[in-house]
Structures are given as C-alpha cells and as structure tokens.
Amino acid sequence: MLPSWLRPTLVLHIYPDHIVWVRTAAGLKRRIENRGVFQFEAESSGAQAVLAALPQVLQQADAAGARVEVVLSSHFMRYAIVPNPDGAAGGGELALLCRHAFERVHGEAASRWDIRLSFAALGGNGIASAVDRDLLDGLWHQSAVSGALLASVQSGLARAFNQLKKPQPDGIFVLAEPGRLCLLAWQARSWTAVQLQPALPDWQDGLDARLARLRLQLDMPDTVPVHVCARTGEDIDLRIVPWSVDHETGLAMAGGKA
Q1: Sheet bearing 126-132, strands edge to edge
Q2: Are residues 112 and 137 both part of a single domain?
Q3: pLDDT: is 172 or 240 the higher one?
Q4: Where are the beta strands (DSSP E) in 90-135?
Q5: What number is the average pLDDT over the span 174-190?
Q6: Same domain as 103, residue 203
Q7: What is residue 252's predicted lDDT score, i.e. its pLDDT?
Q8: Which residues form the domain of 227?
Q9: What pLDDT score does 79 carry?
Q10: Is 10 in the same domain as 138?
C-alpha cells in the first residue's frame, strides 16, 4: 500500500443537495489540481441521495488511487454534551455514557448511529458526535468500488473549529451552512452547549438574538469572544471571522479572517 503522501488527496464536503470536492496532488507540498461542485436533488432521506450521487462525484474527481477525506455537513450529524467522560471506569462504560447522552433525547434512533467522543480537558465535559451507520458504510463501499482509499470521515463542525487558532478559555463558535446553524459553546475550557438550528438565507440578521439566548442560558457575559465560520460569496471554502456587536446601534459585524 502506498504511503498517504504518495497519493493525491480528495476532500469531499458533503451537503444534503450538493458535494464540494477538492483534489490536491501527491507529494509533501499539497497543490490543488482541481475542484468542483456536484449538485443533485435532495430527498427526504438525505443519506440515500448522497450515496446515489457519490459514484458520479468520485468519477468526476478522478478518485481512483486517491486518499479520500469526507467532511459531513451538520445536516447529517447529531451532537451531545457528555459530562465528565474521565469519570468512566473503562471503554465500555464510556461508550454507554455517550450512547445514553443521545438516547435520552432521540430514543431508539440512536441505536443506528455511529457515536464518537472528542477529546476533552481533564475533568471537563466532552462532546460526542453521531452519524447514521448506513451512511458511513455507504461511503466506505463507494470509495472502495472507485479504487480510492477512504482515510477519514469527520464532521464539518470539527474540521471548521480546528481552524481556530488558540481558542480562549471561554467562547462561542458558530458554523453556518445552507439551511443550518451549529452553535458550540465552552467555558473554562469545558464544552457546555452544542445546538443545531434551522437557518434562513438571511441568518446573519438574527444571529445576535440567537447568541443572546445562548449566553442567557449559560450565564455567559457579552464579552465572550464569538467566531463565525461560513462560506463567503461564491467561494467554496469556509472562512472564520470574529463576530462582534455594536452595543449602541445593536448591529452585528463580522471582522476580518481570523
């Protein structure tokens, strides 16, 4: 098997009605070779529509022999705060703790999900993510059929947040995607809230009200830094910008790239 750096890399950003793909050349210095957007009709079962479109995307992006990284939109994800995962006696108890965090909200549906826990500060809360197991199986199968190596599957929230350099001990991070907002909050370096909310095209106009409600729920001061990650203009890449409010006018403003 070829080492990963000798393979081209194909990153697939998967949304309910389109897939954004970026292909970079093999080698230690990654250079973008090609990129594109594949549109398709969204269905009530978004996962099935994605898997039906995926063979065409992989062919269009010349995936054979490539290392594939999949980034899933918040539309396909569920999240839950897991209190003090360090208190679990072992891996089995930790898995039960994470699954219970979803079952108490979503019930039996959680039995069909693949659940993973992120790293947490020692003694702090963790954040668990869940994705439909059938979608994951389909991604692995389609990649193998195309001759590609599926190297990773991660949430768009994780990929976006990891672009944030040196987060403060307290903060709020917002991932804005078509039709969906994800609000993530932490205090004293411990995750305290994660919310998925529907969003209209003019989501920016109502964002400060959403942030005010979240701050009120968590008793967070207005001075807590907020960063927003969103697509700008016609660019297919996401950008992180600081978000602030002019308290005299009440107008929200996005600053430069973080």
Answers
A1: 77-82, 126-132, 113-117
A2: no
A3: 172
A4: 113-117, 126-132
A5: 93
A6: no
A7: 41
A8: 163-254
A9: 95
A10: yes
